[in-house]
Amino acid sequence: MTRFGQSWFDDDAGPLVRPYAVTRGRTLGSGRELDMLTLVVTKSSSVPLRRPEPEYPEILRLCHVPQSVAEVSAVLRLPLAVTKILVGDLINDGHLNFRAPAQYDTGPLNLSTLRAVLDGIRRL
Predict the structure, then answer these.
(1) Rounded to 5°, angle at Cα 18 from 28 and 53
(2) Residue 76: what are its φ and ψ, rounded to 5°?
(3) Looking at the whole model, is its pTM more than 0.70?
(4) How far apart are CA 64 and CA 31, in angstroms?
């Protein structure tokens, strides 16, 4: 809260549009389950952007270089769930390419490697 005579700025009030309004009330993505580490990058296509919300062109601008969904969320100052929905919309519209994070095998080979690393750390 501000005291009498102090300036009050719009940023102090928080976002003017609530996250559920940005996604038009949707809580689920449009078919793709995106991880927060999924990398997205803008496609070089001439398909016009048909979405009027200001977040969409901002995402496309950010993604001229590969960005994770978490990075896009942080820059836009939106919750991760909302960002996943918006990024999913752009993927479905053909504006973004995406690459899911690598899945690591948790089999016995990795377990033995982790044990060897732990033993090496203990020797230090």
Answers:
(1) 75
(2) -80, -15
(3) no
(4) 24
